[in-house]
Every structure is written in structure tokens, then in C-alpha cells.
Amino acid sequence: MTETKYIFVTGGVTSSLGKGIISSSLAKLLQARGFSVTIQKLDPYINIDPGTLNPYEHGECFVTDDGAETDLDLGHYERFSNVRTSQANNVTTGRIYQAVIDKERRGDYLGSTVQVIPHITDEIKHRIMLLATKGNYDFVITEIGGTVGDIESLPYIESVRQIRWELGNRCAVIHLTLVPYLSAAGELKTKPTQHSVKLLQEQGVQPDIIVCRTERHLNPTLKSKIALFCNVSPTAVIESLDASSIYDVPIMMREEGLDVEVMKRLQVNSATEPDLTRWTEFLRKLKNPEFEVNIGLVGKYVELKDSYKSIIESFVHAGTENHCKVNLKMIQSEYITPENCVEKLEGLSGILVAPGFGNRGIEGKITAIRYARENKVPFLGICLGMQCAVIEFARNVIGFADAHSTEFDKHTTYPVIDIMEQQKKIAGLGGTMRLGAYPCRIVKESTALEVYDAELILERHRHRYEFNNKFIPEFEKKGMKFTGINPKENLVEIIELPEHPWFVGVQFHPEYRSTVAEPHPLFIHFVKAALNKGCKRVAPVL
Ligand code: GLN
Asked: What pTM does this model have?
């Protein structure tokens, strides 16, 4: 295609309707027709990025190759499209204002009064357009966070209005709303959708397509009613039923014709039907597992599943690859003690200890790791999980009784995990960790080499602390192997226990790189090890 087309996805009525999944599904469908697509999220909050947000507030912070701390929706974009995102794919109000204020201080505005319109809106538009030039995309899908009607979304909706005016047929707007079912009345209600579209129209934006999230089927009469009240054609009213898996949504959107409606509006011709062979094959395997395996996820944010979104999805990908369903048991590390750990962890065929920050739940994580090590339960430790495995080994195998990370005990006799040299002088919190993709060299004759089948890998990071190399000899003497090393800075990236059936700790975050098209090998091998430990057959042998 010669010129990039822009698709905006707005939301109304409530949050959590799944704009990210709809955007990702549309991207998948357009990709399956041979187009290049990228997705961007504009977040109306004032934080510069979600890096400083509590996971209980906003779910997981997703990290890109270029080290951006971003909204978890970018994880969905990558998992669906298998296209890497970057800093440019997530913009917040904080970042927009920061850029405008910096320009003002530099005198770039030549003495004019700096205002929301045009200066803030110009900056927003610039960020949207910039993305297209970066990758020469056929389509840029921009998801506007929040809900229409929020005060903080106004500049974004205004920017959409302007872009639409400027680009005409190169731009389409999809509005996602809720059509609730009132059980007392026994009816689906369209009024919230009508109001929400009206709100958008008041702000100068007429949506082209309305995607209705609903628990029940929308019949043709209802679709026509929505079309009539909202100024769109009935074919542009798309039903989005609750799905049993988020990975069903591209197929559901295909059946509803979302991609066709978008192309109609943008006057794009595509002779071919979308090729979804691989996607459907993935779904077939996902829905027809041969085995079930129980794996525990030990972490401190387990009450909110979004906090571990990428890990949970990585298990879906890796399970499917292994023809099995992973029953993930979320275990609050804060409540694990040496006394109750057998009761809490018994019956698990694998234990994953999650990443994290701060003291809460640390001793529980260490206890769970001891259980996994002593009972030969396959173990994967990610970032803090790997650091806890080092502490556990130091205390219980080497005999360094008060070994700790200096993140939790500044005065420990054995600082086996210590702050990285380059982190010592950093005072601010946002964007200051070791972030993004770094190379790691894999040692011969290791589980890591078996897993990756490569000697040099790239994985994403998000941490301040590291293994303290001064202790390497004591650890090696007692049987821990350091099988992945950052070649430039000599940082430990992977630890293993060769005496154990499968015990791996990684300083990086493999979960950020797992996608439907390319499930992450570490998760695939971990699930395989768990299957070997114990699983249940759920489908007959053919
Ligand atoms: N808190 C640890 C560090 O900063 C681990 C971080 C993480 O698990 N992402 O090094």
C-alpha cells in the first residue's frame, strides 16, 4: 500500500471492555491478509510511563526490547501479531506534557502562549504519525486508553477529530461499547451505547464501526437499532461476545466482518481472504489438550491476575505447544511458611517463582524454592525468583545463614545479590533500572543450551540487583552452575542445578518474548519437565 492508514479504537460506557484485544485481533486479521500493521496505545494518565505504578493498580508493566516500561496491552499486541513494539508504541499524557514543556523551556514556541490546542494536540498527532514512518506500516492502529467522557481523554479525542479531518478516507474510528443484559427485564439494552456514541459525536467524532461487547447474541433488530441511533450501517455494528479464550477473538471478529468493514471504510482492496491457518491450528491444540499439568505460580500480587499477565499467557502458549493444559495455581508467597509449605505445594509438577520488588513475601518465596529443590520439583525462577533461588542455596546448601539480597538486608554478612554498580548513583525511580534487551552468552553442556539451542541470546530485563560474582567459587563448589553470562559486563544471567531434574533461574524476563507464533523455549521446556514429573491424561490415546 502506498499510504499508511490510521485506525483509532476508542471505548465507552466502562473500562475493561477489551480494547486491547479488539485492536490486537484486528491487527491479526489485517496481517493475515498480508498487510503490515503496528498498534499503539495512548494512555491519558499523567505518569510518564507505567513503570512506577503498583501492579495492583494497573497490572503488569510490559517491557519492550528498547527498554520502555509500557502498558500491558503492548504485551497483547506482541503476542497476537508477533511484531515487536517499542517506546513509540506507548505514549502517556505525562510524556506528551513533558515534551511540550521541554520545548517551551527551550524557546521552541517563539513566545506564543502554549495551550492544549494546538500544542498538546499537535504533540499527540506527531506521536501518532511518527510511528508510521518508523516501520513503513500499511496500518497504524491507535488505541485510546480510558473511556470517552473522561476529562483526561479530551485532548486525545480532539486529536482524532483533527486527524480524521486532515486524512479523510485514510482514517477510521472504531468505538467499543457495552450492551448489557438486564436479567430482570430479560433484555439486552442499547441505551448505554447510544449515550456513549452521542458523547463521542459531541466531541466531533463520528465512529465508523461500533463494536458491542455483550454476554448474549445481538439479533439483527438490535443491530439495526444501534445503527439507526448511531449513524452507522447495520453491517458496521459488530458483536463481541464474551469468549472462553482471548485467542478466539480474531476468529470471532472475522466472522463478524470487522476487517471487511474497516477495509470498506478505508477503501482498501484485498483480493485474498485472511490466511488464519496457523492461528486456527493453535486454537485447535489449545482447545483439545491431551494432558493436564498443575504448576504453581508463587508471587505476591496473585490476587490480581493482570499482574502476571505475560507469565500466564506464556503458559498458555507453552502448554499448547506441549499438547497440554497448564492448570496454574496462584499461590500468595506471603502466606507460605516452612510449616505449611507441603500442604500448599504438594501435588504441583512445577513451581515458578515470580519477579517482584520489596520485602513482602520474600521468605515464602525462599521456602517454596527450598521445597522445589529438595523434592525435585521442576523450578523456574524469574528475576526476583532467580535471586531468591540464589539466597536459598546460599543459606541452606552453602551454609551462609543470613545470606540475602541487599535490597532487603543492607547489613547481611553474605550479600549474594547486590545492587549493580551502575545503579548505585541513581536516585530517581522511573525508567532507571537495567531495562530492555541485553545479550547473554550460554555455556556449553547446560540445560540453557538445550533450551535455546543457541550460544548467544537476547532477553529483556527489568532489575537493579544482580548476582554478586565474588561468591561464584562457593556456589560452584556446592553444585550451582552459572550457564548464562552477559558477555560485556560479566553479569550472571542464568543459574542451574545440574543435580536436579530441571532447576533454572533467569535474571531476565522470558515471558515478555512469548507469542502465539513463537512460544518461548524456556516455558516450553519447563512445561515439558513438569509433564515428566506428573500429569493427567485427559484425551484418549489415538
Ligand atoms: N527487585 C529485584 C531487582 O530490582 C528484581 C526485579 C524483578 O523481579 N523484576 O533486581
From this structure: 0.95
